[in-house]
Amino acid sequence: MADQLIKGLEGVIVAQSQSSKVDGQNGRLLYRGISIEEFVEHQAPYEEVAYLLWHGRLPTRAELDQFSAQLASERALPEKVLDAIREFPRSADPMVVLRTVVSLMAMYDENPDDLSPDNLRRIATRLLARFPTILAAFHRLRQGLEPVEPRQDLGHAANYLYMLNGEEPGPRSVEGVNAYLVLLADHGMNASTFTARVVAGTQADMYGAISAAIASLKGPLHGGAPPRVMATLEKIGAPERVEAFVEEALARKERIMGIGHRVYKTWDPRAKILREMARNIAEETGNRKWYEIAHTLEQAAVSRLAAKGLYTNVDSYTAPLLYSVGIPVDLMTPTFAVSRVAGWCTHLLEQYADNRLIRPRAEYVGPVDQHYVPIDRRE
Ligand code: COA
Predict the structure, then answer these.
(1) Which are the catalytic amino acids?
(2) Does 230 share its domain with 200?
(3) In percent, how much of the chain has pLDDT > 70?
(4) Domain of residue 70, residue span
């Protein structure tokens, strides 16, 4: 057994997975061996990617129809869960709302502790179906509006936008959000996925593992970056101010949000696709401002930083894309969770099926040979 301290477990392989392959040198991401570009090129619905991840193969048309219908039928929240959301403070962070409601859902599940693959897939389907409903319900309520009931005739992405905004979204917006959900569905052993696996490793229930994953995704070093990108775009304010902003930021040795990645040392393949989607949405909605600032920022930053292996990452276009379809800044990280729940559940299916308690060690660096001093003799 290695006795070496590896801070942050960087580079340590903690599990085998057949779900996604991240190739940081070549800027590639594969789901079950298929390049992410192919899903977007063929306009694969997010539901199909979830099926692929959970079952290990693409569904037939009949299987996809059945899975999509099952997801749609699971969208509505139990009345008691909705009542609980009504009581939440309007100022609550939507990530806290999501993590709390997932935990709450365990109490209304008929069989949360059965870890057999069929039951785990049933819970995974329910979780994936309900993330958008939870967020949209809270978002409506905090604005003093009634939640919009989910529709069964819309796909996952379209229904999410419909429940958030109360009106049917345009085709480019649906295409863009669907692509976003597809592109973020899984990404190797990232922090939230590892968190979920640690919980599952103790044979605790899936709701607990997923609420822990949400807690982990919330941090600014993981899922919390898009709001910071949006803040940068807002601060810049107009495309013609980008050059000066970049010059000044780099002179002050500041980091430009949306640039750089721990694994990708070339273009992040997801950013390239989201750039296209963000441009399409800008055209559909007529709101070109955020796309144009983001695009000008990309050109100005990458031309100066590519030599250091710094390119735009997935968050650079996530922010303008989601913002343009009516997803407010504090729902960006929760929308990341709407997508990533597919990957979390895939890794949980793997972990439960081939489990070993995840229990590393700490190197003790505190004192030894100390003695207990009775309280009345302490200084
Ligand atoms: N803007 C300007 N310079 C950057 C930079 C950025 N966004 N990201 C990294 N660099 C520079 C560092 O200053 C460092 O330069 P130096 O070698 O001259 O000191 C070099 O690139 C390597 O940085 P390092 O911190 O080792 O990279 P990392 O792999 O640890 O960091 C990120 C990866 C994502 C944390 C980092 O790129 C970052 O902070 N990006 C901005 C935040 C963001 O977009 N996060 C979303 C990630 S998906």
Answers:
(1) 261, 315
(2) no
(3) 99
(4) 17-221+327-353
CATH of the domain at 139: 1.10.580.10
Task: Read off the pLDDT band of 16 (50, 70, 90).
Answer: very high
Q: Do residue 239 and residue 111 come from a single domain?
A: no
- The verdict on 302 and 278 lying in the same domain is yes
pTM check: above 0.85: yes
**Which residue, judged by its Cα, is nearest atom 38 of ligand 1?**
260
d(CA 255, ligand 1 centre) in Å: 6
Lowest-confidence pick of 30-39, 40-49, 95-104, 274-283? 274-283
- Domain membership of residue 7 (yes or no) is no
Residue 29 within any structural domain of the chain: yes
Query: Does the C-beta of 220 come closer than 6 Å to ligand 1?
Result: no
Whether the per-residue pLDDT at 220 is higher than 90: the answer is no
pLDDT of residue 78: 95
Confidence check: pLDDT of 317 > 80 = yes
Residues 153 and 230 in one domain: no
CA distances from 54 to 32, 47, 118, 131, 205 (A): 10, 11, 11, 17, 18
Q: Which residues have C-beta within 8 Å of that of residue 332, sequence separation ≥ 6?
A: 226, 227, 230, 318, 319, 322, 323
When divided into structural domains, the chain yields a total of 2
What is the structure's pLDDT at 284?
A: 85
What residue's CA is closest to ligand 1, atom 42?
257
Contacts of 36 (CB under 8 A, 6+ apart): 29, 30, 182, 183, 269, 270, 273
287 with 318, same domain: the answer is: yes
